[in-house]
Write a structure and sequence with these properties.
With about 160 residues, the protein is an alpha+beta fold. The chain has four helices and six strands, in the order βαβαβαβαββ. A hairpin with a 2-residue loop joins strand 5 and strand 6.
């Protein structure tokens, strides 16, 4: 949902370069400000903007995870605790120069967090997600057969 900010996952050894934090945060329990040198003045930020319109403004070099007040709910990652996830973030860093990826719970409003491959596939097919990584497999939505969904899940839960 547009109002719900994403969280960053960042290489533990680089967290303090992007966030005002001096310790690991492996469980997304800590909120810290984005470092001042990574912030941007929000172009068009004015008293005339309200609600969702204010959220559409990029506030840092990592805009998808920067809250309106320049904070973020951080998850740090190290190779010892999660080598596959760490290697993914590290590879992204090597290719882009950015050690931060978007991290969020895998569910849609009103539904529990995905726990199985089947639940992941159903959520993937019901949403605007383009790709799904399951273990060593990468699924492209365009390559999937038509998805017949018995329930009209979008009408099941009221929007905020």
């Amino acid at each position: 949902e547009s109002f719900r900010p994403f969280a960053p996952v960042v290489l533990e050894e680089m967290a303090s370069e992007y966030f005002e934090i001096d310790r690991p945060s492996p469980y997304m329990l800590l909120v810290a400000d984005v470092q001042k040198n990574k912030r941007m003045a929000a172009a068009g930020d004015s008293p005339n903007l309200f609600g969702i319109e204010k959220l559409k403004l990029a506030r840092s070099v990592i805009p998808a995870v920067t809250h309106i007040d320049y904070s973020a709910r951080i998850q740090t990652i190290n190779r010892k605790d999660n080598p596959i996830y760490y290697d993914l973030v590290k590879e992204f860093y090597k290719k882009t120069g950015c050690p931060v990826l978007v991290n969020t719970s895998f569910n849609v409003r009103g539904e529990p967090i995905v726990c199985t491959f089947n639940e992941a596939y159903v959520c993937f097919m019901r949403t605007n997600i383009d790709y799904l990584v399951l273990g060593n497999f990468i699924l492209n939505k365009e390559g999937q057969p038509p998805f017949a969904d018995a329930k009209d899940w979008k009408k099941e839960f009221a929007l905020d």
